[in-house]
Design a protein that fits this description.
- With 424 residues, this protein is of the alpha/beta class.
- It contains 15 helices and 10 strands.
- The chain folds into 2 domains: 216 residues, Rossmann fold; 165 residues, Glucose-6-phosphate isomerase like protein, domain 1 (Rossmann fold).
- α3 packs antiparallel against α11 and α10 crosses α14.
- 39% of the residues are buried.
- The chain binds 5-phosphoarabinonic acid.
- The site of 5-phosphoarabinonic acid has 14 residues, from loops.
Length: 424
């Protein structure tokens, strides 16, 4: 394995012995994963990265992606687990101010958003990837209806059939049926992969491949992390289980809000995916760590006060990027009109890192427990690792709380209630 992401904690004797005690419990859960003896193990299809997709399926994804690359824009329609990781990954990898090929149209019942999108697409040559495991979620279904109507107003039936791909569950008939009747290409989300764990399936592989990233490499890299976790039974050498363990201990000490904080702009959307993963997996049966996020240094100017001096039931997990891949030096000015020559010659990364260290030190002084997740750099390799790391940590963490990570009864009741209300 190459370099790996690292986890650092403020490890005192007390935390060390609590973790040592919890290690047994975690390993018990870990064993159940391999032996598949858990009540909810029917949804463990995501766990073994290598076996999620067949070679044939991978080749089909690559071929479809290549075809879709010819369009000026590709609209990816989906919500929750059906878009968050793909968007987080693209946000992290793409250059800033990039005129993106992929537009995510998903999330809200906001008429101005959809109207503006249709206006924007009026003169664009575009295709659609619609993603919904259930095939019935209202927000993406309505967006799809309107965009499909737009495509049919512009092209023949045969042409539209080449511009739409549907990714759904093989047994959920509405979207599958609609796709078959209209002659759209379809991809299946495997039965044993739960929504928010569906990242290594066509759900994100197709959008990412359309954006020209190497999905085969990403899968191999996530596999590296899986192997690292599988092989290290010592909790102190296993970042995913160490993270799950320390969160559990903090919760038992009444720290029930976790802030995922980063000083890296490119990682800011990743916290949206992370919030869904942990929030929907753990927040049930009256047990919870509330997942929140802050983007520094921007939020130092709005939330610093609260973190430092507000309620004391929170802890902070920092996503830190170690290497300086972009070097930008502060210039020296002859007249020094702005009095900033004292930092000339320093890089922005150095200053950003100093702000990070200061923030950590200040928050520690105010009894905010700190966890550091350190990735060497932002690239496909470490993001693949990070993704698997969080999934595996979340799974074991939910089991430590004795909740089923593979359901979301609250979300389902919202969907049902909403349908009933609008039918009236
Ligand atoms: O992750 C989840 O469980 C949910 O947030 C779903 O992803 C979301 O509701 C979208 O569901 P679907 O893919 O069925 O449209």
């Amino acid at each position: 394995m190459h370099k790996s992401i690292k986890l650092e904690l403020d490890m005192g004797d007390e935390l060390f012995s609590q973790l040592k005690t919890l290690e047994q419990e975690i390993l018990l859960q870990d064993e159940k994963l391999y032996k598949k003896t858990w009540a909810w193990n029917v949804f463990l299809g995501w766990y073994d990265v290598e076996n999620i997709l067949s070679q044939e399926e991978l080749q089909k994804i690559k071929a479809t992606a290549e075809y879709f690359q010819r369009f000026e824009k590709v609209i990816v329609i989906g919500i929750g687990g059906s878009y968050l990781w793909a968007k987080a990954l693209l946000e992290a990898l793409k250059p800033n101010f990039w005129d993106e090929k992929i537009i995510f149209a998903w999330f809200q019942l906001d008429s101005s958003y959809l109207k503006d999108l249709l206006k924007y697409l009026a003169k664009k040559d575009y295709g659609i990837v619609v993603i919904s495991k259930s095939g019935t979620t209202l927000e993406p279904a309505l967006t799809f209806r309107m965009l499909l109507q737009d495509l049919y107003s512009k092209y023949s039936k045969q042409e539209v059939s080449k511009r739409v791909v549907a990714i759904t569950d093989k047994n959920k008939w509405i979207l599958k049926d609609l796709a078959t009747k209209n002659g759209f290409e379809t991809f299946v989300i495997p039965d044993d992969v739960w929504w928010r764990y569906s990242v290594f399936t066509p759900v994100w592989l197709l959008p990412i491949a359309i954006a020209w990233y190497d999905i085969e490499k990403m899968l191999l890299w996530a596999k590296d992390m899986q192997q690292h976790i599988d092989e290290n039974k010592d909790i102190f050498k296993n970042p995913a289980y160490l993270y799950a363990g320390v969160r559990n201990i903090l919760l038992n000490n009444e720290k029930n809000i976790e802030i995922l904080a980063t000083f890296e702009k490119k990682l800011s959307f990743l916290s949206e995916w992370w919030k869904q993963l942990f929030g929907e997996s753990e927040g049930k049966d009256g047990k919870w760590i509330f997942p929140a996020s802050l983007n520094y240094s921007t939020d130092l100017h709005s939330m610093w006060q609260f973190v430092q001096d507000g309620s004391r039931n929170l802890f902070e997990t920092f996503l830190i990027v170690e290497n300086e891949s972009v070097k930008l030096e502060i210039p020296f000015l002859e007249n020094d009109e702005d009095n900033l020559n004292f930092i000339s010659g320093k890089t922005l990364k150095f200053i950003n890192h100093s702000a990070l260290n200061w923030t950590i030190q200040a928050h520690r002084e105010w009894w905010v427990p700190i966890i550091k997740i350190i990735i060497p750099e932002i690239n496909e390799y470490y993001l693949g690792q990070l993704l698997y790391f969080f999934q595996r940590a979340c799974w074991v963490s939910a089991y430590l709380l004795w909740v089923n990570p593979f359901n979301q009864p609250g979300v389902e009741s919202y969907k049902k209630y909403m349908m009933e209300c609008i039918k009236k």
